[in-house]
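Lecture 7 notes: from sequence to structure.

We start with a single chain of 278 residues. Read the sequence below before looking at the structure.
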Amino acid sequence: MDIFEYLSRFSLPLPGQVKGLVSFDFDGTLFSDTWTCTERIRLFDLLINLREKGIIWGINTGRNLPYLGEGIREMFQGVAKAFAPDFLITMERHVHLRKGEFLVSDIDWNNRCDDAHEALFRHHGAMLDSLLADLEFEFSEYQLSRQEGDVYSLVVNDAVCMDAVAEKIDNVIAPYPEIVTQRAFVYLRFSHKDFNKGTALRHLVRYFGLDPRTVVIFGDGHNDLDAMAALPEAYCCCPSNAVSEVRQAVGKSGGFVSQHSALTGVLEGLELGVLPRI
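Now the structure, written as tokens:
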């Protein structure tokens, strides 16, 4: 059963009037090795509370769709009130949205996204292949590898090592403004500048006809900065495990920086930051 079919079993109708949305990063924000069933139950209690106020929710992640599906199934285990997200953004760029009881791919957006990346990698593939080979040699002690099914990507053995790798990459791609990187702890992906967590979320905000001021963004990694920058009017929150750049961006915007990590921090952000604003 694919993730769309699975989630159709948990779908709820959209509110009569969609008044806002909450966008959650997944790994390190919602999902972690330390989350508990009690926390996940509390999360969906809060999401139901928000839904009664016209606020929908979704996930904005670097995971691909099958991998995200694995995490969502774990997220729903033991939670009787769990209900399907109203949108998904996967690989930091592909959009999937609710049509009736089903989540479906946004064909127009995703085709434009795929066409842009195909052209980008066709034009710059040789340069990127050479860069990746150089990185694998120069930083061999960091155990660099490519993500399966995602040729222009990297995984390193820890997030600290990624700082040195990312600095080298930034210097090499600087003359090519159409190429950017999406970085999330030990993962890095090359991408087209026009398609990221921010532009995809902004597209969804337009789709639902929302004022950006009614948007809430939760995130913890470098790739979440795109979403926060694309929607500067949004209310931003982060858990304590967020990278320093995210904590600084959230604090500067007047958002909520939790003293707790991962899902515990998300719950605090919802209870003390988001709900009092609605």
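The CA atoms of residues 132 and 218 lie 31 Å apart. Keep this in mind for problem set 3.
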